[in-house]
Task: inverse folding
């Protein structure tokens, strides 16, 4: 049985060696394969065509490689691009890569049934774009052998050229449709849009983005979540919550604050254990939540709470404060604004307005 079949194609290969020292070598090629297919047992993968174009320059004596062109194309599926500059056989590197408009529906349809784990009727859609840039140097082998490569890459002192990373991921008009079966009803997520950016340089990181979509089948009503976030990491030590806002039907949720003392955990100097976190972290976090079912046009409380009638506004604000190794305190307030509640049993609460403060502190 032949594992690989093709329906024809074309290829061109060029090699230019300037001199016998191999300091100036150029390689380029263009290849197109029509109707490639792979078969093995119950594994089957077939494409209409696939093409690959590459060009590179090498100084084999010094271990330097420049990939000027790397383009992989599969029509109606994906286009991938890569550029790279490597020195000392990759010890120092600069890499740029893109995945352009990956067609998720086409990708799912091309996956062998073996990988779908009884989810053949699942529908997936949308397009995905990914961009990545990174440069720097691999760390040397000096230092504690217990430290992971990840932690050694993140700490600037471990390399002459600290690693820098920037990445962006975009999902446009995503779709997930889980078909109804005997155990669950149909769950559908559509109009999924997300944009996430990540940047890391010299011990400073930044993660930001947004998400929105429409979810059906998780309850009695459709959900339309909107989430925006922005987190910053300074000197691998302080995490700042610059933006964290979620809107979901009549509910709004937000976080703000910071956490100090993370560097020993990120670099692996201290294990991530409860008593270590309590004794080494300074934390100041505020969590605010609002449920507003007072305005016309908002979703009814019966739909939200399963037959419970409610009207008005409930707001909570909770502050968490930890002084490393000293105290842990939790305080805040629970507020009501013209809040009314009617239970199916007949118990009723009318027009409640006021604030209930609370506070608790313990010694560490």
Result:
């Amino acid at each position: 049985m032949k594992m690989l079949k093709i329906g024809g194609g074309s290829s061109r290969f060029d090699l230019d060696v300037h001199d016998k020292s191999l300091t100036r070598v150029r390689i380029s090629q263009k290849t197109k394969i029509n109707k490639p297919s792979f078969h093995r047992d119950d594994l089957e993968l077939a494409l209409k065509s696939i093409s690959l174009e590459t060009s590179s320059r090498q100084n084999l004596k010094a271990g330097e490689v420049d990939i000027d062109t790397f383009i992989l194309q599969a029509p109606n599926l994906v286009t991938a691009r890569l550029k790279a500059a490597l020195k000392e056989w990759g010890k120092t590197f600069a890499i740029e890569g893109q995945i352009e408009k990956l067609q998720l529906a086409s990708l799912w349809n091309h996956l062998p049934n073996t990988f779908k784990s009884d989810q053949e009727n699942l529908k997936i859609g949308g397009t995905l774009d990914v961009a990545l840039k990174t440069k720097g140097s691999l760390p040397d082998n000096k230092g504690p052998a217990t430290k992971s490569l990840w932690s050694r890459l993140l700490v600037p002192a471990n390399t002459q050229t600290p690693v820098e990373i920037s990445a962006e991921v975009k999902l446009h008009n995503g779709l997930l449709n889980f078909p109804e079966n005997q155990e669950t009803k149909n769950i559908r997520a559509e109009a999924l849009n997300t944009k996430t950016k990540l940047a890391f340089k010299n011990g400073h990181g930044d993660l930001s983005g947004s998400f929105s979509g429409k979810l059906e089948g998780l309850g009695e009503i459709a959900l339309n979540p909107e989430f925006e976030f922005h987190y910053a990491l300074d000197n691998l030590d302080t995490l700042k919550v610059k933006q964290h806002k979620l809107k979901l039907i009549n509910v709004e949720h937000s976080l703000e604050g910071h956490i100090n003392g993370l560097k020993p955990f990120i670099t692996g100097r201290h294990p991530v254990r409860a008593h270590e976190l309590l004794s080494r972290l300074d934390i100041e976090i505020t969590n605010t939540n609002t449920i507003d079912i007072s305005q016309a046009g908002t979703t009814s409380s019966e739909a939200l709470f399963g037959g419970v009638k409610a009207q008005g506004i409930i707001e909570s604000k909770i502050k968490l404060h930890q002084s490393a190794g000293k105290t842990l305190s939790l305080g805040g307030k629970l507020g009501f604004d013209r809040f009314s509640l009617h239970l199916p049993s007949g118990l009723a609460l009318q027009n409640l307005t006021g604030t209930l403060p609370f506070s608790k502190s313990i010694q560490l």
The chain is about 10% helix and 60% strand.
